[in-house]
Amino acid sequence: MYVVVVISWTQRLKSDPPLTENLVVLGTNLELPEERMLRMDQVYVIRHKVLREGLSIRAVARQMGVSRNTVRKYLNISEPERRQMEPREKPVMKTVAPRIEGLLEEWKSRTTEKQRITGSRVHRQLVEE
């Protein structure tokens, strides 16, 4: 018995919607099964059920409707590390900070606390200089 399989490929742009390849087997269109990715909340549930609740891999796979290999895969990967960013340098602020402090001191002596200088006024004055 021979089965004829024709796979049609078309060129598409990045802006085009994703294509599903259709298989034509003896005049019948069969769609390829979609590869289903788990969402992160599902991964956390899998990890919680096995690691915290103590359920077996097989039981979790049955409950979640995924393969046992998938459960094993997500158990073997560790949690992503959270890296703390190093504080960035602020070269412009280093040059302007003394002038801003000077403006604040000037305005403190000229006005009451309620009428103090605003950030937009400081910016306008710095731009004018």
Automatic annotation (TrEMBL):
<feature type="domain" description="HTH IS21-type">
    <location>
        <begin position="42"/>
        <end position="104"/>
    </location>
</feature>
<dbReference type="InterPro" id="IPR009057">
    <property type="entry name" value="Homeodomain-like_sf"/>
</dbReference>
<protein>
    <recommendedName>
        <fullName>HTH IS21-type domain-containing protein</fullName>
    </recommendedName>
</protein>
<dbReference type="InterPro" id="IPR017894">
    <property type="entry name" value="HTH_IS21_transposase_type"/>
</dbReference>
<dbReference type="Pfam" id="PF13384">
    <property type="entry name" value="HTH_23"/>
</dbReference>
